[in-house]
Design brief:
The complex is a heterodimer of chains A (233) and B (831). A 6-stranded mixed sheet of chain A has the order 6-7-8-3-9-10, with helices on both faces. In chain A, strands 2-1-4-5 form a 4-stranded antiparallel sheet, covered by helices on one side. The two termini of chain A are 21 Å apart. Chain A has helices at residues 56-63, 86-96, 112-122, 128-138, 154-167, 184-201, 212-216, and strands at residues 8-22, 25-41, 45-49, 71-76, 79-80, 97-100, 172-176, 204-209, 220-225, 228-230. The radius of gyration of chain A is 18 Å and the shape is globular. In chain A, strand 9 (220-225) and strand 10 form a beta hairpin. Chain A is 33% helix and 30% strand. By secondary structure, chain A is α/β, with parallel strands linked by helices. Chain A has a single domain (8-21, 29-231), classed as Rossmann fold (3-Layer(aba) Sandwich). The longest helix of chain A has 18 residues, at 184-201. Chain B folds into 4 domains: 1-45 and 245-379 and 388-410, no CATH class; 58-236, no CATH class; 412-499 and 684-831, no CATH class; 528-665, no CATH class. With 831 residues, chain B is α+β, with helices and mostly antiparallel strands. In chain B, a hairpin with a 2-residue loop joins strand 7 (154-157) and strand 8 (160-170). Chain B has a 6-stranded mixed barrel. Chain B has a 6-stranded mixed beta barrel with strand order 13-15-20-17-19-18. Chain B has 25 helices and 22 strands. The longest helix of chain B is centred in the C-terminal third of the chain and has 39 residues, at 691-729. The chains are: A alpha/beta (233), B alpha+beta (831). The interface between A and B is medium-sized, with 39 and 29 residues. The structure holds adenosine-5'-diphosphate and magnesium ion. Residues 56-57, 176 of chain A line the site of magnesium ion.
C-alpha cells in the first residue's frame, strides 16, 4: 500500500486551539487542542482516533484551514496556512483538498451531478459536467445523476460526497467520521471506496474515526485524548 | 408545560432565536398603534377643527325659542352652551335702508373657532373672543358700502341704534349658509329685546350651540335625536357643509389606508419570521418527540409561547407606539389651531389584537407543523422539513386581517373593496412572481461563474424564489406607493383647490340681465365665467308617493325635504361630476334631446331620500307640478367650489320655469373694486365671498397631508420590515450552503458576487412587479377610493427595478454578510 514515500505534504507544528469558556465572557478560555505536532507524507493514509469530544473535528478543521489556530502552524505543501488570507486558503482548498463530512453536507436543492460539479466549477474547470459524471460512475451512481439528495439513501449520499471530494483530484483528502451516519455494511462499502480512490489517485488520506478496526487499515494511527496526541494506541 | 414553554422561550430569547419574530411583531404593533393613536387624536382634532365651521360641535336650530329641556340635558352632560338668533331685517342709516342678515349672539358665542374683525374695510383683521358689547354692531364691508357708511357711524336695527365699531371679517359659522342673501350685521343678544324685532313675527332662527368632549356630544345627540319637535333640527360636524365633509372623509380614508397597509405588511413579516422560527425549532421538536412528548403537548408548548410573545409584543408595542405618536404630536401639534386632544386607550386594544391576531393567524400555521415532525429527524436531519405554506392554513389569519381591515375602513363597502384589492394584489404578486421565475429558468446560462451560479440558485428553488419575489415586490410596491404615488395623490388632492379656484359666487342674476352681466364681466376684466340657471322647487313625490318629512328618520333627510331645492338644466355632464349609474342624456342628430322628462340626481341625496334609478320625481315649481324620470345618478366633487346641483334636467324640461342664474369665479383680492362696480350697476345681485371658507378648507387639507405623510412613515417602516424578514428567511440555508462552498474552496469574492447576483435579480424582478402594481393601485386608489384624477407616472417603471435591484442587492448583502464572514467550520460543527 505504501507508495514511494515522498516528501512531507502536511506538517503541523505546536498546534493549539482555545475557545471562550463561557459565551460572552472573554477572560476564561478553554483549551481544546494543545501542542499538536505531526507530519504526513504524500500518499500516506492516516487515521485519527479518539473518544468523542477529544478534538478530532477541530483538528481536521484546522488542517483544512477552515478555522484559525490559537497557536502553532499548519504547512500544506510547505505553505503556511496561517500566513494566507481566507480567500487564498479557499483557493488552496479548491485546488488541493477534498473533504468528506459525517453528515454528508450535500446541497439539498442540487442534483447529485450538480453537487459533484460544484468544486469543479469553482476551480474553473470547463469539463465539469463530463468529469462529474465520470466520478459518479466510478462510485457506482452513474444511474442516479439527476436525483437530489432527498431521493438518495444515506450510503448513496455519502458516495456522492466522496465523488464530490475526489472530483478535482485533490492531493489531500480529509474525512471526518465518514461512516458515522451509516450502518456497518454500508459504512464498509464507503470505506472501501475511499481506500480504492486513495490508491488509484495517489491521494493522501486523513481519516477521523472511532472505529479501531477501520483505523488499523491505515498506514498510521494517531490517537487524540483531551486535545493532545497520545501514542497511536 | 407552561413552565417549560417559558423556559424555552427565555432560552430562545437569549440565543437570539426570537429576535426576528419579536422585532417583526413589535414593529407591527408599534406602527399599527402609533397610527391608531395618532389618527385617533388627529381625527378628533380634525373634527374639532371642522367644528369651527359650525362654531360648535353640535347645534340645535329651531324656528321657535329653544325649549329649556335641551339646555338642561346639555347642562347635565357638562356641555358648554352658547346661543344666537338669526333673522333678516332692513337696517337703516340716514336715508338709506338695506336688507341685512342679523345675528344677535350671546357673549359665549362662538364655542369653536374665532370671530375676526378689522378697523376698516379690507384692513388687517384680528381675532376676538366674542360678539360686540351692548350698543355696538360689527358689519360686513358690503353693508358699509351699500349704505355709504364708515366704522364709527350709527345704524338702526329696528328700534335700537347701534354704533358700528368694527368691520366683521370672518365668522366661524358664516360659511354654514353659503346662499345668504344679504350682508351680515352682528350684535349683542342683550340688545335684541330693545329692537322690538322679536315680537314682529319675523322669521327668526333660534340656535343653541354646544361643545364638549366627543362622548358627551354623542350622548346628547343620541338622547335628543328622538325628541326633536317639528321645526327643530340638529346639526353636527358631519352635517356641516358638503365641502368640509368631503375633505374630512377623504382625510380619514387616507389615514385609514395607511394603517391598513401597515397591518397587512406587518402580518406578512410575521408570517415569514414565524416560518423561520419554526424551521429552526424542528430539531428541538424531533428531540422532544423522541423523549416522548405527545403532539398535543408540543402544540400546547408553542401555543403558550405564542401567547406570551403576543401579550409581550402587544404591551411593549403599544407603549412604543404611544411614544412614537407623542413625538409626532409634539411635531405636529403647533399646526393645529385647537390643541390635540389626548389619545384614547382604544389603540392599546388594537395593539393587543394585532399582536395576538397576527401571531395566531400568521405565526401559528408553520409553528403548528412542528408537532408532526418525524422523530427520525433526530437521525437524519434532512427528513421532515416544513411543508410549504398553503393559503388554507392561513385562513384564520386572513379572517383576522379582514376583520382588522373592516374595522379600520369603518364602512362596509370600503372594507370590501380593500379586501378585494388586497386579495387581487396577492394573486397578481403570486402570478407575476411565478411567471418571472419561470422565465428566469429559460434564460441561457452564460457569463461569469458567480452570476450563473446566482441565477441557477434562484431557479433551483423556485418556491423560495417566488416567495421572496412576492415579499420584496410587496415591500417595494409600498415604497413606490409611498414615494411616488402618494406624492401624486396628495398633489392631485391639493390641486383640487388651486390658488385660482372660484372664491366668489354671484347669485340672483335675472334671465334678462344675463347678457348685460356677461358683457360687464368682460368690460371690467373679470374672468370668463359660466352662468348656471337655477329653478327653485319643492320635492312633492317620489315614484308617485307623496314626500312627507316625518317619513324620514334621518334629520338631514328631513331638513332636505322641508327645504327648497335648486334645480338646474344642462346639456353636458358638468366637469366636476361623474356618472355612477344610468345614462346621461344625448342630443339627437337635430341637436335636441328627444325625451326632456329626465332627471339626473346626485348619488348622496338619492341615497338619503331613497331615490333609485328609473323612479319618477315630482317637483312643485311656483305652484306647477313637473314630473320626470330619474335616468342617471352622479357623484359630485363638492369641494371644487364650483356651482353644482343635486338635480339636473335637460334644458327643455325646465327652460320655461322662472329661473335665476348663478356664477362662480376667482376674484383676485387686488381687484376687489371690480366687484363693487358690479354691485353698483346691478343692485339686485348678491355676492357671496367663500374665500374664508376656502382658507379653512385649505388649512385642513394641508394639515391632513402632513399627518398622512407622517403616518406613512410608519407604513414605510413596516415595508422595510418585510424586506428584512424576506432576507432573513433564507439566511440559514445560505449560511450552510456557503459554508460548504467555502469548505470546497470558493473564494469570498465569488460568494459575494453570487449572492449579489441573486439579490439584485430578485430585487429587480420584484421591482418590475412592484412598479406594475403600484401603477394600478395608484390608479384604483385615486379613482375609486379617493375620487381624484390620476395620471400614470412613468418614473415608477424606472425606479421600481432600479431601487429594487440596488436596494435589495445592498440590503441582501448587508443582511447576509455573516454568510460570507463566519468561519466555514460551522458545517463541521453541525454534524
Ligand atoms: N466553537 C467551540 N466553542 C466551544 N467549544 C467547542 C467549540 N468547538 C469545539 N468545542 C469543544 O471542543 C471539544 C472538541 O470538539 P470536537 O473537535 O468536535 O470533538 P470530536 O470531533 O473529537 O468529537 C468538545 O468538547 C467541544 O465541545
Ligand atoms: Mg467530531
Amino acid at each position: 500500500m505504501l507508495q514511494s514515500l515522498s516528501e512531507v505534504v502536511l506538517k503541523v507544528e505546536g498546534l493549539g486551539k482555545d475557545v471562550p469558556a463561557l459565551a460572552g465572557e472573554g477572560a476564561d478560555r478553554l483549551t481544546i487542542l494543545s501542542d499538536i505536532s505531526l507530519a504526513i507524507r504524500g500518499g500516506e493514509s492516516v487515521a485519527i482516533i479518539g473518544p468523542s469530544g477529544s478534538g478530532k473535528s477541530t483538528l481536521l478543521g484546522l488542517l483544512a484551514g477552515l478555522d484559525d489556530p490559537s497557536r502553532g502552524r499548519v504547512l500544506l505543501d510547505g505553505v503556511d496556512l496561517g500566513a494566507l488570507g481566507e480567500d487564498d486558503r479557499a483557493s488552496l482548498r479548491a485546488e488541493k483538498l477534498g473533504f468528506v463530512f459525517q453528515s454528508f453536507q450535500l446541497l439539498p436543492m442540487l442534483t447529485a451531478l450538480e453537487n459533484v460539479m460544484l468544486p469543479l466549477e469553482l476551480a474553473g474547470r470547463t469539463d465539469a459536467h463530463g468529469r462529474a459524471a465520470e466520478v459518479l460512475a466510478r462510485v457506482g451512481l452513474g444511474e442516479r445523476l439527476q436525483h437530489t439528495p432527498l431521493q438518495l439513501s444515506g450510503g448513496e449520499q455519502q458516495r456522492v460526497a466522496i465523488a464530490r471530494a475526489f472530483a478535482v483530484g485533490p492531493s489531500l483528502l480529509l474525512a471526518d467520521e465518514p461512516t458515522g451516519n451509516l450502518d456497518p455494511h454500508t459504512g464498509e462499502r464507503v470505506i472501501q471506496l475511499l481506500f480504492d480512490l486513495n490508491r488509484e489517485q495517489g491521494t493522501t488520506l486523513v481519516l477521523v474515526t472511532h472505529d479501531r478496526e477501520l483505523a488499523a487499515r491505515c498506514d498510521r494511527v494517531l490517537g487524540l485524548q483531551d486535545g493532545r496526541l497520545v501514542s497511536g494506541a | 408545560m407552561m413552565r417549560l414553554a417559558l423556559r424555552l422561550l427565555r432560552r430562545d430569547w437569549r440565543s437570539g432565536e426570537l429576535r426576528v419574530l419579536l422585532a417583526a411583531l413589535l414593529i407591527a404593533v408599534t406602527c399599527v398603534t402609533a397610527v391608531a393613536f395618532f389618527t385617533d387624536r388627529i381625527g378628533q382634532a380634525l373634527n374639532r377643527q371642522a367644528g369651527e365651521l359650525l362654531g360648535a360641535d353640535l347645534r340645535l336650530l329651531a324656528d321657535h325659542p329653544i325649549p329649556p329641556a335641551w339646555r338642561e340635558q346639555a347642562g347635565t352632560l357638562g356641555l358648554r352652551q352658547a346661543e344666537f338668533r338669526a333673522f333678516r331685517s332692513m337696517v337703516m342709516a340716514g336715508e338709506g335702508a338695506r336688507l341685512a342678515e342679523i345675528k344677535a349672539a350671546a357673549p359665549a358665542y362662538p364655542l369653536r373657532g374665532q370671530l375676526r374683525i378689522a378697523p376698516a374695510s379690507f384692513a388687517a383683521s384680528q381675532a376676538v373672543a366674542g360678539p360686540p358689547p351692548r350698543g355696538q354692531a360689527w358689519v360686513e364691508p358690503l353693508l358699509l358700502q351699500q349704505l355709504g357708511l364708515n366704522v364709527g357711524d350709527r345704524i338702526e336695527v329696528g328700534d335700537v341704534t347701534l354704533r358700528i365699531t368694527a368691520v366683521l371679517s370672518a365668522e366661524p359659522d358664516r360659511s354654514g349658509a353659503m346662499f345668504s342673501i344679504a350682508p351680515r350685521l352682528l350684535m349683542n343678544l342683550a340688545d335684541l329685546p330693545a329692537s322690538g324685532l322679536e315680537q314682529e313675527g319675523s322669521r327668526m332662527q333660534y340656535v343653541l350651540l354646544l361643545a364638549g368632549p366627543a362622548e358627551a356630544v354623542t350622548r346628547f345627540r343620541v338622547a335628543m335625536a328622538d325628541r326633536l319637535a317639528p321645526g327643530e333640527r340638529l346639526e353636527g360636524v358631519r352635517d356641516a357643509r358638503p365641502e368640509i365633509r368631503s375633505a374630512l372623509q377623504r382625510a380619514q380614508r387616507f389615514l385609514g389606508l395607511a394603517a391598513v397597509v401597515g397591518v397587512v405588511l406587518a402580518c406578512v413579516a410575521i408570517a415569514m419570521a414565524a416560518r423561520r422560527f419554526a424551521r429552526r425549532h424542528l430539531d428541538t421538536c424531533a428531540v422532544l418527540r423522541c423523549l416522548g412528548a405527545r403532539q398535543a403537548q408540543i402544540n400546547r408548548l408553542f401555543l403558550w409561547q405564542m401567547l406570551t410573545l403576543g401579550l409581550l409584543a402587544g404591551a411593549l408595542g403599544s407603549l412604543l407606539g404611544f411614544a412614537a405618536q407623542g413625538v409626532l404630536a409634539a411635531l405636529l401639534g403647533p399646526l393645529f389651531v385647537v390643541s390635540l386632544p389626548p389619545a384614547s386607550l382604544l389603540p392599546v386594544l388594537m395593539g393587543l389584537a394585532v399582536a395576538l391576531g397576527g401571531l395566531l393567524g400568521f405565526a401559528l400555521p408553520p409553528v403548528m407543523q412542528l408537532k408532526s415532525v418525524p422523530t427520525l429527524r433526530v437521525l437524519r436531519r434532512e427528513l421532515g422539513g416544513l411543508r410549504p405554506a398553503s393559503a388554507g392554513s392561513y385562513l384564520l389569519g386572513l379572517a383576522v386581517l379582514a376583520a382588522l381591515v373592516a374595522w379600520q375602513a369603518g364602512d362596509g363597502r370600503l372594507a370590501l373593496a380593500m379586501i378585494a384589492g388586497l386579495a387581487a394584489t396577492a394573486l397578481v404578486l403570486w402570478l407575476g412572481a411565478t411567471l418571472l421565475v419561470r422565465l428566469l429558468r429559460r434564460l441561457p446560462r452564460r457569463g461569469q461563474v458567480a452570476w450563473r451560479f446566482g441565477l441557477a440558485n434562484l431557479s433551483r428553488r423556485p418556491g423560495a424564489s417566488v416567495a421572496q419575489v412576492m415579499a420584496f415586490g410587496l415591500g417595494l410596491m409600498v415604497l413606490l406607493l409611498l414615494g411616488v404615488v402618494r406624492e401624486d395623490l396628495l398633489d392631485a388632492w391639493a390641486g383640487r383647490l388651486p390658488a385660482d379656484a372660484p372664491n366668489r359666487f354671484v347669485i340672483n342674476i335675472q334671465p334678462g340681465q344675463l347678457a348685460e352681466v356677461r358683457a360687464f364681466f368682460r368690460e371690467v376684466g373679470l374672468p370668463e365665467a359660466e352662468f348656471h340657471p337655477m329653478v327653485r322647487a319643492r320635492l312633492r313625490a317620489i315614484a308617485g308617493k307623496p314626500v312627507v318629512a316625518d317619513d324620514y328618520r334621518d334629520e338631514h333627510a328631513r331638513s332636505l325635504v322641508e327645504r327648497e331645492f335648486n334645480l338646474s338644466w344642462a346639456t353636458q355632464l358638468p366637469v366636476d361630476n361623474t356618472l355612477v349609474a344610468g345614462r346621461w342624456w344625448q342630443a339627437g342628430s337635430d341637436g335636441k334631446i328627444a325625451d326632456a322628462a329626465q332627471f339626473s340626481v346626485e348619488e348622496g341625496i338619492a341615497r338619503r331620500l331613497g331615490i333609485t334609478l328609473g323612479e319618477r320625481l315630482s317637483y312643485d315649481i311656483a305652484g306647477q307640478t313637473v314630473t320626470a324620470t330619474v335616468t342617471s345618478l352622479r357623484s359630485v366633487q363638492w369641494d371644487s367650489f364650483r356651482a353644482n346641483f343635486f338635480v339636473l334636467s335637460p334644458p327643455a324640461l325646465l327652460q320655461d320655469q322662472p329661473a335665476s342664474y348663478i356664477t362662480s369665479f376667482f376674484l383676485d383680492p387686488r381687484h376687489a373694486e371690480r366687484l363693487d362696480a358690479l354691485i353698483k350697476r346691478f343692485p339686485n345681485l348678491t355676492v357671496i365671498d367663500v374665500s374664508a371658507l376656502m382658507t379653512q378648507i385649505r388649512g385642513i387639507i394641508e394639515r391632513v397631508v402632513l399627518a398622512v405623510e407622517y403616518v406613512f412613515l410608519f407604513t414605510l417602516a413596516a415595508g422595510l420590515t418585510v424586506l428584512y424578514a424576506a432576507i432573513q428567511s433564507s439566511l440559514d440555508e445560505r449560511l450552510r450552503e456557503n459554508a460548504v462552498l467555502r469548505a470546497l474552496g470558493a473564494r469570498r469574492r465569488r460568494l459575494w458576487q453570487s449572492l449579489a447576483s441573486e439579490f439584485v435579480t430578485l430585487g429587480a424582478l420584484a421591482g418590475v412587479l412592484a412598479a406594475a402594481l403600484a401603477s394600478v393601485l395608484g390608479w384604483v386608489l385615486a379613482r375609486q377610493v379617493l375620487e381624484l384624477d390620476y395620471t400614470f407616472n412613468l418614473w415608477l417603471w424606472l425606479l421600481g427595478p432600479l431601487v429594487g435591484g440596488l436596494g435589495v442587492g445592498l440590503a441582501g448583502l448587508l443582511g447576509t454578510r455573516r454568510v460570507v464572514s463566519s468561519p466555514p467550520l460551522v458545517v463541521l460543527r453541525q454534524a
